[in-house]
């Protein structure tokens, strides 16, 4: 198991350093994150394609059948990339877009990376064809639609987002999330949460999608003050509500 790669002593040091880290502590945390990312990537690479497909379907079916998903009207969701071995989201995205065509009730925003400085936007799309491959062969929305009009940016929207579906490399049951190191999601989510506070909006539910192998023991994932926790996890084994907001809104 990946979680067993950290000794109890090392995990204890990480917990201490994550509360009030100084420069040396931060260097140690970043080093631990790099090592953990390497370990998780190896584990993900070793999952047989048939098993990964089964887990993809199980996670997406759980999301699509959940009342908290069905009741969400405005959603932000990542576009899965097979090369990165992220939990597939295309069934979910297709369901949202098809539902929107029929009822117009759901609105979907998806990420577009703007630069290498953790700057990411979430832009509205209305169909899968709105996505194009970038230089890394990752699908994302073009900044303008087929008519040349700028796509709506969620940060300029008039209504709040109900739900974020998030990727990650690893998670634990206390809500810690290990990203890929770019800081894009943490930066964006912090900015959006600040916007929601300014506008007196209810904070969105942050739900991460995870393979079973990505859920680690508590304390193994080192964190800093800029690492935002998720409200809930969805794995093939079920939905794991973590925060009080998730417990209240998911009613599990």
UniProtKB/TrEMBL annotation:
A GO BP entry: folic acid-containing compound biosynthetic process
Catalytic reaction(s) noted: (6S)-5-formyl-5,6,7,8-tetrahydrofolate + ATP = (6R)-5,10-methenyltetrahydrofolate + ADP + phosphate
GO terms assigned for molecular function: 5-formyltetrahydrofolate cyclo-ligase activity; ATP binding; metal ion binding
InterPro entries the record matches: FTHF_cligase, FTHF_cligase-like_sf, NagB/RpiA_transferase-like
EC number(s) from the headed UniProt entry: 6.3.3.2
Cofactor needs: Mg(2+)
Name of the top EC class for this enzyme: ligase
Record's keyword terms, sorted: ATP-binding, Magnesium, Metal-binding, Nucleotide-binding
Binding positions for substrate per the UniProt entry: 79, 86
GO cellular-component term (any): mitochondrion
Pfam families cross-referenced by the UniProt entry: 5-FTHF_cyc-lig
Binding site for ATP: 33-37, 177-185
Coiled coil start-end: none
Family label: Belongs to the 5-formyltetrahydrofolate cyclo-ligase family.
Name recorded for this polypeptide: 5-formyltetrahydrofolate cyclo-ligase
Species: Psophocarpus tetragonolobus (Winged bean)
């Amino acid at each position: 198991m990946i979680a067993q790669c950290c000794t109890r002593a090392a995990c204890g040091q990480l917990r201490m350093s994550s509360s009030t880290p100084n420069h040396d502590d931060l260097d140690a945390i970043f080093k631990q994150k790099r090592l953990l990312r390497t370990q998780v990537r190896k584990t993900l690479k070793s999952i047989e394609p048939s098993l990964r497909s089964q887990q993809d379907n199980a996670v997406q079916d759980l999301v699509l059948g959940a009342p908290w998903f069905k009741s969400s009207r405005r959603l932000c969701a990542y576009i899965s990339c097979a090369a990165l071995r992220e939990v597939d989201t295309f069934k979910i995205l297709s369901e949202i877009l098809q539902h929107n065509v029929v009822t117009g009730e759901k609105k979907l925003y998806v990420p577009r990376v703007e630069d290498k400085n953790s700057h990411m936007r979430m832009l509205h799309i209305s169909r899968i064809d709105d996505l194009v491959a970038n230089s890394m062969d990752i699908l994302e929305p073009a900044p303008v639609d087929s008519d040349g009009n700028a796509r709506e940016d969620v940060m300029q929207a008039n209504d709040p987002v109900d739900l974020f579906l998030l990727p990650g490399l690893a998670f634990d049951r206390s809500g810690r999330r290990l990203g890929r190191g770019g800081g894009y999601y943490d930066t964006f989510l912090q900015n959006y949460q600040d916007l929601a506070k300014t506008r007196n909006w209810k904070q969105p539910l942050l739900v991460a999608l995870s393979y079973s192998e990505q859920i680690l023991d508590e304390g193994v994932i080192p964190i800093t003050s800029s690492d935002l926790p998720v409200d809930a996890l969805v794995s093939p084994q079920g939905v794991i509500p973590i925060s009080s907001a998730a417990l209240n809104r998911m009613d599990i």
